[in-house]
Specification:
It is a single chain. By secondary structure, the protein is α/β, with parallel strands linked by helices. The chain folds into two domains: 136 residues, Rossmann fold; 68 residues, no CATH class. It is 38% helix and 26% strand. It has ten helices and ten strands. Helix 3 packs parallel to helix 6.
Length: 237
């Protein structure tokens, strides 16, 4: 579904991605792992056309979408939840959700999408009229993911969805991610919670200083060498 080929990206004069190549198969959860500064967020932003690639290409459903503009990427069927939630704090939960469906004019479609995101995150239905900025951190992350899902994307990209969230809500968010995949959507996930990410993922890549240093099935990465376990921070059995 998604193919990234030899992607090179600079921040100013500093290289951020060095010829990154990866594939995301349809109806899979693919996770990109790595420490801060590894290039994970840069990768997502470049796919979403929020950053410009110096070279390389991004192909989505066999069409080249490299640098076509963020609004056109969304219209092609890619939605991204950025790091740090980025909800509209002064608006209600419902208003935030409807903004996610702004490109969809059919009222029936919007109702169907609302029912779907409420099935994933029942708490949001309970807080429909609540001002979004008064939600807990975990609830705000649920809202950010739900808003992205309102557009009915083919590919959902999530940047650190568990960041700064209580463990109980982290578990619920990962359960929702699996449900999204099981319903037929494709997910590209950037995470630092390694155990949780690999437990739900089908395939994974490890990035270090803008390069992919390992790749494989989630099981292969979990059961790999001691070096990988040390790098990923996976606790020994």
């Amino acid at each position: 579904m998604l193919r990234v080929n030899n992607l090179v990206v600079f921040y100013g004069e500093s290289p951020a991605l060095h010829g990154v190549t990866l594939n995301v198969a349809q109806r899979q959860i693919v996770v990109a792992l790595g420490s801060n500064g590894a290039g994970k967020t840069t990768l997502l932003k470049t796919i979403a056309s929020l950053l410009k690639a110096q070279s390389g290409s991004v192909l989505f459903r066999d069409q080249d979408i490299t640098g076509i503009g963020a609004h056109r990427v969304v219209s092609r069927g890619i939605a991204m939840t950025p790091e740090g939630k980025h909800i509209f704090g002064r608006m209600s939960v419902l208003e935030n959700l409807l903004i996610g469906a702004v490109t969809r004019r059919d009222p029936l479609y919007r109702e169907e999408r609302l029912d779907y995101v409420f099935s994933l995150f029942p708490r949001l239905k309970e807080r429909l009229k609540q001002i979004a900025g008064t939600l807990s951190g975990g609830e705000q992350q649920m809202l950010a993911i739900a808003r992205a899902l309102m557009s009915g994307p083919k590919l959902l990209m999530l940047d650190e969805p568990s960041q700064g969230i209580a463990p109980l809500l982290v578990e619920k968010i990962f359960e929702a991610i699996v449900s999204v995949r099981d319903a037929g959507m494709t997910v590209l996930l950037v995470e630092q919670h390694v155990d949780e990410a690999l437990a739900c993922a089908d395939y994974g890549y490890i990035l270090q200083t803008g390069r992919i240093i390992a790749r494989g099935s989630a099981k292969e990465l979990r059961d790999g060498s001691d070096m990988k376990k040390m790098y990923l921070g996976i606790r020994p059995e």
